[in-house]
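In response to the reviewer comment on reproducibility (Comment 2.3), we provide here a single inverse folding case reported in full, input and output, so that an independent group could reproduce the run without further information from us. The structure tokens appear first.
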């Protein structure tokens, strides 16, 4: 760097610009990083809001009306029987296992 009384050359100006630009680049990188973190935080909060709305909603009226519509269409009986089948099969397997283990 030149002394106090000498004129600055073009090379001196370029080196000063480069040195001055370094902190600006770091600041810009930090700002960009913080903006990305802020955007991610906003997205996370929006997802939490949606989840809380779903969790707090009462689905009982919906289920009641679905069951009522299925009964009106004559489909409730077969649905109940289809739901009971896996339970019956599991009970039979448990009984067979008890009978096989007791012998």
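Designed residues, in position order:
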């Amino acid at each position: 760097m030149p002394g106090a009384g000498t004129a600055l050359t073009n090379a001196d100006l370029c080196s000063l610009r480069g040195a001055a630009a370094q902190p600006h680049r770091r600041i810009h990188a930090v700002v960009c990083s913080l903006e990305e973190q802020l955007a991610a935080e906003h997205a996370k909060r929006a997802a939490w809001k949606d989840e809380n709305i779903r969790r707090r909603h009462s689905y009982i009226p919906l289920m009641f009306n679905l069951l009522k519509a299925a009964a009106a269409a004559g489909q409730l009986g077969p649905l109940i029987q289809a739901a009971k089948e896996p339970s019956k099969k599991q009970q039979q397997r448990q009984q067979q296992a008890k009978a096989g283990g007791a012998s």
